[in-house]
What does this fold into?
Amino acid sequence: MKKEKIRAIAVTGMITAAAFLITFVFRFKVSFLTFDFKDAFIALLSLMYGPLYGVASSAIVALLEFLTVSDTGVYGLIMNFLASGTFAFVCGIIYKNKRTFSGAILSLVFAAISVVIVMVTANIFITPFYMGVPRSAVIEMILPLLLPFNLAKTVMNASSTLLLYKPVTAGLKRMNILPKGEKQTKSLRSILLAVISILVMVLTVLFLTLQLNGVFQVF
It folds into this structure.
C-alpha cells in the first residue's frame, strides 16, 4: 500500500510537470482569457487516482503559472484553479464510481459542462473587479465571448484527455507503475475514438475562430 502511494505521488509529480510545461508550448490569449491544454493532463490524474490528485495538481499548476507565465495576477490564479479544479474533480468523481469506457466519456462530458457553468458564473462575479467595469458589461460578454470560449476550451481538453489516456496509462503499465490488469488489444473502437477526438478538436478550433471573428454567430 505504501509503495502504491509513493508511485501515485511520483506520477502526480511527472504529470503535473507536464501540465505546467504545456503552458509554455501551447498558450494563447483570446481577449483577457487564456487558452491552453493543461487540463487534459491534470484530468489524467483524476481518472487514474481519483479527484483529489487532480485537484491537488490543479492548485500546483495554477500557482506555478501565477509565479511564471501568467500576466493576470491573483485573478488568473483564482480563475485557473477554478477551471482546472472543477474539470479534474467532476471527471474524477464520476469515473471513480463508474470505471468503464462509457463512464470515462460521461465523466468528461459532465466535467466540460460543469466548467462552463462555473467559469461563466465566476466571470460574472469576479471579472468586474479585475477589469474595473460594471457587472452589466461582463454579462454582455457572455454570449459573444465567455460562453463560446469556455465551451471550446473544455471540449478541446476533454477530447485531448481521451487521446492521451490510453497511451499514457499503457506506458505507465509497461514501466510497472500502474497495475497491468487484463491485457487489452488494439480495437477498432480505440481507433474510432482517436479519429473522433481529433475531428472534434479541429471543429472546435474552427468554431471558436469563426465565432470570435464574427463570421457567424451561434450565441
User: Anything to note?
Assistant: Residues 142-174 form the longest helix (33 residues). The chain has eight helices and two strands. Strands lie at 27-30, 33-36. The longest strand covers residues 27-30.
